[in-house]
Amino acid sequence: MNRPAPASELLRKPFPAELLKSLQARFGGRVSTSATVLEHHGRDESAHPIAPPDAVVFPANTAEVAEIVRLCGKHGVPVIPFGAGSSLEGHVLAIHGGVSLDLSRMNRILAVNVDDLDAAVEAGVTRKQLNQHLHDTGLFFPIDPGADATLGGMAATRASGTNAVRYGTMRENVMGLTVVLADGRVIRTGGRARKSSAGYDLTRLFVGSEGTLGVITEITLRLYPQPEAVSAAVCAFPSVDAAVRTVIQTIQLGVPIARCELLDALTISAVNRHSKLNLREAPMLFCEFHGTAASVAEQARTVQEIARELGGMDFEWATKQEDRTRLWQARYEAYPACRQLRPGNRAFSTDVCVPISQLAECIAETNQDIATASMPVALFGHVGDGNFHLVVLIDPNNPADLDEAETLNQRVVRRALKMGGTCTGEHGVGCGKLDFLDAEHGDAVSVMATIKKALDPDNLLNPGKVVRS
Amino acid sequence: MNRPAPASELLRKPFPAELLKSLQARFGGRVSTSATVLEHHGRDESAHPIAPPDAVVFPANTAEVAEIVRLCGKHGVPVIPFGAGSSLEGHVLAIHGGVSLDLSRMNRILAVNVDDLDAAVEAGVTRKQLNQHLHDTGLFFPIDPGADATLGGMAATRASGTNAVRYGTMRENVMGLTVVLADGRVIRTGGRARKSSAGYDLTRLFVGSEGTLGVITEITLRLYPQPEAVSAAVCAFPSVDAAVRTVIQTIQLGVPIARCELLDALTISAVNRHSKLNLREAPMLFCEFHGTAASVAEQARTVQEIARELGGMDFEWATKQEDRTRLWQARYEAYPACRQLRPGNRAFSTDVCVPISQLAECIAETNQDIATASMPVALFGHVGDGNFHLVVLIDPNNPADLDEAETLNQRVVRRALKMGGTCTGEHGVGCGKLDFLDAEHGDAVSVMATIKKALDPDNLLNPGKVVRS
Predict the structure, then answer these.
(1) Where does A75-193 have alpha helices with state H?
(2) Which of A202, A252, A254 has its CB closest to that of B448?
């Protein structure tokens, strides 16, 4: 989230010159201490102040990651894995200093097993790179958080996004991992069988651990057949509430809708301007259906009937691939589009997820908060999962704006928790949501800390994230 | 699995009289040391020799479980959670003695949230009990391992069975847990939101941990709308290979088949005799389709076309509910049916799961083993997931039979591992599959041991299962 990181300079120990020398001797030009590179690796897409690492290393393979982790361990220096830097809760900030491990050069696709619907990739492969590679195989990888994140980063943060309502999140779609542990050992978790009861589910433990328990270097992913038919539609509603109630009924009926996104009127107007569209500036659902031609038509008919009863307009269809691409591109760009509502401002993003029955009420109450906010606040999200975001536009030179945004965030989170929801549906904890974990999980947080301590006794793997340190 | 448990008497310490007195003072008639009760709690459905606990306690709620765990901890006495006793790898055997914690009286359904498609139950609720309770809600819980297991036991062993090909396993369908830790603290994991990135995935860590990391006392489960249309069919094939290839193509095409079971000719003949059916005694697929009427018809057409091209006969349909019930009842009873192939014999069951592309070859090679076996060996399984079982009939008075069955089991497991599969698709590790974990997971097994040590430092929670002790 978006409260300032702890005054990071206070937490830093001096960086050992000997470690830098060892890294340079071993990795040469793949070690950087240039101010620009450090700064780039000390921030993500959140409003957190920059906390640059002391050095950045670009390993080429798992063995090199293990070497770097061992070297840093010897010197008691933190290691912070870095993918595309598109995280939203300060995950990559080097708040205790240390070495940023940039995995972007580990971008080989190691295997695609078309017959088994799985693929193995290095952590630096991005989701778009994988899908381009899969293009001619008839398969695709559905998880789509918007940003062209690395698959390692997506696994580490348990990412989801559009499509999760049908295909699940990274939790359901990572089959196995290669992980470098805090002591430099390399393990493989999971496997390629579709199911297994062979021991503790280490795969799921590392998925969402945000680099605090180990460094994910390779991932085996589940793939899906490209659907025979895809159709997308937008539907405008007289109110956010009517749109949300349409979603709730759709999910409760078990319609296997593939994407189901809500954009409020402010978001639509931002998107129109940013992506040069002419959408009606009203609360709107963006829907996509996957399946056989007959099944897609049937699903769409069902949802349209529900929408109509709740006052929705007719569906406007995007049947051609290029229209769909344009539509979803616009949806993905809701975030930058909203930022342009007040140029020069920063976007402060919230992220909660509630049981679907609570979604209408949670959004309605949140809209009352928005109505009294002093700045523009856009609301959109993956409502098929009960997940929604606010984008709060704050003036970086006005501390009162940040305070107001934080208060709003806290109100939304407390509301979601009270309704049986979670403080983060998909962005993760990082350093931004640490304070909410106790409220959500109570004493279970101490079990998380016990596991952290057992697997990373010196607290060198992305310290200060997920569990307090 | 099925090698003899370690000579359990050697591992036992004398049971502290003081502990028994405390338990009796606190729980009265809900503590038993009767030989019959101890014996019942010292075995499961596997061929392992009985290892009875020293006492059985029947708690009524989570707080009582916590009390028992604390009392046992004070005396350094193991605690072994017990549900329905239907496990298949010796999970409930008290190989180090101790207290069997029988959760069957914790059988309240705590909440059903129809709008959110979830339910909360105590660990002793069985899957049939839950589905009877749900009958009029329009929802159901799909995971179906055959036995009427408790949902606590199913969560603890990461159970699956038929339906997993469409709905996933317990891994995908447990949303949250109440767990009593080794020190008696009670935590809640997960929650009711459909997705969350809020910290380590403790829910998935406890699912499949077989009572070795904590005692699961309550479970929040995901429910599904009862499908509008259901149809089931059987289809006979000229060979196991043709049947398996039909399954592989079905999965690769992405047909959302709900159940897809293979029974070999020997299993069919056993089932015919046991369940008084007249199925053609040939390799056979039992299929079930869920969806709208149109979608079910379309799925069935697709699978039938694939089957026909591979030499399958016409589908024989079970469209009426009672015919379907009879069909699936017969499938579930394959296990007892096979046991009757040689009355007086015990069934030694194997359980592997391989990537679907390897399934035909894995089964073909296994059939060569079966051809040279000295006893009847039936093959059936959840082939849509790549998961299959052998039932090897062994004479309990002939040690050579057990040796032969073990050798066969080892061959099947090694073969599955070589093909990228797992040593257990759904039965779990218990004490039977311990020896295979190293071969499957390598150094990751040491991470499992580290976690066990961190959460259960005195090794009192179901010791000797999953991780070596």
Answers:
(1) 127-134, 151-156, 164-167, 170-173
(2) A202
pLDDT of residue A1: 39
Do A193 and B422 count as a contact with CB atoms less than 8 A apart? Answer: yes
Q: How distant is the Cα of A349 from the closest Cα of chain B, in angstroms?
A: 15
**Cα B265 from Cα B312, distance rounded (Å):** 14
Distance CA B57, CA A11 (A): 51
CA angle A59/A96/A84 to nearest 5° reads 40
Tell whether the torsion through CA atoms of A35, A36, A42 and A47 is positive or negative.
positive
Query: Are the CB atoms for A422 and A388 separated by under 8 Å?
Result: no
At B153, is the secondary structure helix, strand, or coil? Answer: helix
Do residues B62 and B25 make contact, with C-beta atoms less than 8 angstroms apart? no
Contact B444 A294 (CB under 8 A): no
Give the C-alpha separation, B20 to B402, whole Å.
37
> Which residues in chain A have Cβ-Cβ distances shorter than 8 Å to B296?
none
- Fill in the amino acid letter for A273: R
To the nearest 10°, report the CA torsion of A125, A131, A132, A137: 120
Q: Which of B169, B187, B422 sits opposite A198 (nearest CB)?
A: B422
Contact A388, A247 (CB under 8 A): no
ipTM, interface predicted TM-score of the complex:
0.96
- The reply to whether residue B197 touches residue A436, judged by beta carbons under 8 angstroms, is no
Interface test with A, best of B165, B200, B260 (most A CBs within 10 A): B200
Reported as a single tens digit per residue, the pLDDT across A345-371 is: 999 999 999 999 999 999 999 999 999
CB contact under 8 A, B441 and A186: no
pLDDT < 50: residue spans in chain B: 1-7
Residue type for B54, please? D
pLDDT band at A7 (very low <50, low <70, confident <90, very high): very low
The single-letter DSSP state of residue B106 is -
Q: How many CB atoms lie within 10 A of CB A466?
A: 30
Q: How many CB atoms lie within 10 A of CB B386?
A: 33
Contacts of A158 (CB under 8 A, 6+ apart): A169, A170, A171, A207, A208, A426, A428, B196, B197, B201
CA B440 to CA B42: how far, in whole Å? 28
Q: Do B466 and A199 touch (CB under 8 A)?
A: yes
